[in-house]
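In the current project phase, we have settled on a layout for protein records. A sample record is reproduced below.
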Amino acid sequence: MRVVDAAKPTFARHETFHPRYGWFRKAYSFVAADPHVFSREDAAVRVGVGKNMVRAIRFWGLAAKLIEANEQSSSRRISELAPTPWGHALFGDSGWDRYMEDPGTLWLLHWLLLAPPSLLPVWWLAFNGFHAIEFDDEDLVGAITAQIEAIADWKAPHPSSVRKDVSAMLRTYAPAERSGRSGIEDVLDCPLRELNLVGRSIGTSRYRFALGAKPTLPPAVLAYAALDYVARTPTGANTITLGRLAHEPGAPGKVFKLTEGELLAALEPFSGETDALALTTSTGAVQLSWSGDPSEIATATLDRYYGRSRSDNRVELAAHDDAQSTLALSAVGR
């Protein structure tokens, strides 16, 4: 998968704020109550934050695919938003994890932020197209800028926009540096830091992606991501090698920083729990195989993981994801 197939050319739409505790759920709940909430003159009062944070919460809700522009609105107001099936599934009245208490939800949100159509091309390239073992901000900015400038169909963003996106990504995932100017809010304000996907080298204090097994990543969420990936890259087959899932840009191995062996270790016991998935070695390479629509199997996998039966929402989510993967990038370049 290429970045032009996975992401829209949008940069620095987060008002320099990384996602904070409660913002994902807040974006969903406010839009569910009032589709125009983020465009109202008193939005800051209604949401209870400053004007820039209002725009940031709106962006992170859109980026995580919890809310979206309401294309069916009869008022034709561009500012009207609607909860997505994902928003309802996670945070609705009978949602999977209304208060984000399950660690699997953080991994799922991380996947949704990067899954097509991603509004974070800089983040997508950082996880999928950047290969340095250790790096600093400038290394990452330089490498990503070069990749974006090579995309003929995209207008190159302002250098400061790439820098802002890199800064937001590192503040989202990397451990905060304590300093005289850092308050407790700066250290503890981002839930995705709990994933430990970006750390610092003990010897150099430079950043490095955390490779290796992820103890808090539930096998069911990993299986969902694998099936979601194959559903978004249709080939007509019902198998995919773990090598592809580990090494292809946009695949779970890249997004979760897992090797082929680590994928196998996580998926092997899980595949024995369902008839819809299996691991085979008929071609000499370990393959994940499935029987049926991978989108439906993926969502059913999350239903089982979260311990609820939501058959109606499964169908809606699968249909929504199919439409997203087919039409999501039609707006690129508009």
